[in-house]
Amino acid sequence: MSSSASGQTQKSYGITSPISLAGPKPGDITLTKALEESLKPYGVFESEEELQHRIVVLGKLNTLVKQWIIDTSLAKNMPESVANSVGGKIFTFGSYRLGVHTKGADIDTLLVAPRHIDRSDFFGTFYEILKNNEDVKELRAVENAFVPVIKLVFCNIEMDLLFARLALPEVPDDLSLLDESLLKNLDPKCVRSLNGCRVTDEILHLVPNIENFRLTLRAVKLWAKNRGIYSNVLGFLGGVSWAMLVARTCQLYPNAVAATLLQKFFLVFSKWDWPNPVLLKNITQPAEKLGLNFPVWDPRYNPADRYHLMPIITPAFPQQNSTFNVSMSTRSIMNEEFEIGLAITSDVLIGKSTWDALFQPPNFFSKYKHYIVLSAISNSEEDHLEWIGLVESKVRILVSNLENTQFVTLAHVKPKSFAPLEPDKASPTNRWFIGLQFEKKENVNVDLTGAIQMFTNTVHTQAVTAKMFKEGMRIEAIHVKKKQLSKYLPPSVLKQKKKSSIVQPGSATSGGKSAKGDVSLDSTLNASDASLEITSEPSNDSVELTGSSENSEEASVATVSSSDDKKVNPDSTVSSVSTVGEVTSSDTTSVTSQPSAASPDKPAGLKRAGSPSEDEKGSKKRRVDDAEITTTSSVNSLNGNDGRKRPNSNLIDGESPHEKKKDGADLDSVNANTQMRESDVKGSTKTENCAKTGDNKLENLTDSNNPVESKDGVSAAVKRSISPTNEEKHSEKKLKSANEDLEKELTDEGPPPAGQIPVVKNAIKIKLK
């Protein structure tokens, strides 16, 4: 409990005390109303008629489910009186359950059934009922997914429908899924399906004011989508992760309104000391839950968890990291966006800018000098939807492969895919664009062939394993310069301009800090937190590429084909093709991961309605600055930060150990939160057994306030040091090993049958001078 200014005690939320209990001032309420008005043109609010339509549709689906359970029970020789009382119902989760869904958004739903109804019934008889229903369109079952799902459009509303069977004879209408005893004796797929609802409900229980939380989250989601950092599958954050960050902000400022919370959101997470985890509540150990031996996120016992770069931990047991897809590149990009958001929102609070500036999209296609164009191609529209879904789910692996390539400092994928300028119905194609940033080097060749080959091998293997590979499915990777993008994108996309009101990090408002500056503020962790800390040397962020050479208009192409019409040369190997297709640059330009340090000039006379006078602006700015200083000092004192930099650590293989069975379903609010490890690597529980020397040294920190006992009785939080030098060497070894393995396969065993192993036809090489 916390004491407010009036002397009354106030309930505390989260794992630490609030930073501020201050309530809103009249100006904060005015700004909150302006924020709500600024969101309306973007379609983030549904009309009352649309909301009622969703309620009616969910009611129809619930009735359909109840009747199906009765019919299935009777078919299994259950007495009619019992069959009519076994129950079963539909639950919602995700953005709809949180109350922040937008116009036309889908609804994530969960069908909960009693123990005599199993998954085969769900994908059998219930699927047939849906198939024969005239209100159901675009029906598709993904039975072998990590989180099995039926996708459909019901009464013109898109839905994702999961299934969970409880170990109960009946499912009453008033059932609460937060009861952890319901997880006993359930299979992992049912636990994962339930976790989406459980996480959503926990978030709503852990915020002080739901309405303030919802408005802030609507703004954050719109900002993230417009700024191109809303995609769990591509290594950014998904909806539930953004919701947890906003919820943590609400816990730290429980009495603040949305306008204040939005600025505090950017303040807190632009200073966050990653990879310290974001926690809405303390992690519950499996030993504390009798009969519930599910693994939870804990870097002290699970070695794989120590590699997570931006952990945001789900609040419902079993707690998992919702952001294990995040890479060094995507984290750097998001850190930069947090800085930009902080600069803009701080200006809004003092009347120097408007909320609309926060939601302006950046021009991704003018930011980098070099791009990889990744194309997913198939032979029919029927196959293409499934093919692009698989390719997109693996693009994050390509990003990791690229950033682990020598001389590459950042790989930035745009979350949206594009169709060709002249679509070919015979060969449906979707393209993703990846911007590249390099170290400042001269006279070096950057060979991306191995990274591309590793990625295509992964996609092809997944397609074959899932038995979804069809003739004509293929991937093409092309390197192009910025000036060549006009061959692939319309002018309306390439010439998108930023509004001048957008403030860049490094401006006066943001305190002159770059996006990759010292992220030393951890607003949740104090001495009692069992946290993972990784330390390393900072990396070089600024890159300038200069060059002049031949073939400036040619793009190097790496074509990967697995169809029968593409013959594999028995002598072709990655090693041999890496000597051809060299592309050299004739442009001289500067490419950096940071926007300009200077803020763009503001339009003369820009004044928001009801904005304060110049004297009032100065007073407000002083209050904003004072609040930031207070926040920083308060949280740093809690965190005990020593000012050390964070690492450039990442999984060398480019894929988290938890990813291996994830790709079938793309339900962000489930898959982002429920990566249950089916075969965890168990770390040593004794600190002396897990201690390493050199780069793998583990240190134990005593926690006297909130001890968490390990098996040897040591109360500890683990620190891990990773040497970037050794990591880079290791990643280079992995890429080299991939090339050598492929060469050995083709040389020793002869060519594989066409359509079995994709081979990069041409090298992708970029020459830096």
Automatic annotation (TrEMBL):
Q: Name one GO biological process term.
A: RNA 3'-end processing
State where ATP binds: 93-95, 102, 106-108, 160, 221, 230, 239-240
Low complexity: bias regions: 548-562, 572-593
Subcellular compartments: Nucleus
Alphabetically list the UniProt keywords: ATP-binding, Magnesium, Metal-binding, mRNA processing, Nucleotide-binding, Nucleus, Transferase
Q: Which Pfam families match?
A: PAP_central, PAP_NTPase, PAP_RNA-bind
| Enzyme Commission code(s) on record | 2.7.7.19
The record lists the catalysed reaction(s) as: RNA(n) + ATP = RNA(n)-3'-adenine ribonucleotide + diphosphate
Poly(A) polymerase RNA-binding domain residues: 363-419, 429-496
Positions of Mg(2+) 1 binding: 106, 108
Q: Which organism is it from?
A: Pocillopora damicornis (Cauliflower coral)
Q: Where is the Poly(A) polymerase central domain?
A: 212-360
Highest taxon in the source lineage: Eukaryota
Main localisation: nucleus
The coiled-coil segments of this chain are none
Q: Which residues bind Mg(2+) 2?
A: 106, 108, 160
User: Could you tell me which residues belong to the region Disordered?
Assistant: 496-758
The family assignment reads: Belongs to the poly(A) polymerase family.
Instruction: Kindly list the organism's lineage.
Output: Eukaryota, Metazoa, Cnidaria, Anthozoa, Hexacorallia
**Could you tell me where the Polar residues compositional bias lies?**
521-547, 629-640
> Which EC class does it fall in?
transferase
Q: Single GO molecular-function term?
A: metal ion binding
Record field: compositional bias (Basic and acidic residues):
614-626, 655-665, 726-747
List the record's Gene Ontology CC terms alphabetically. Answer: nucleus
UniProt protein name? polynucleotide adenylyltransferase
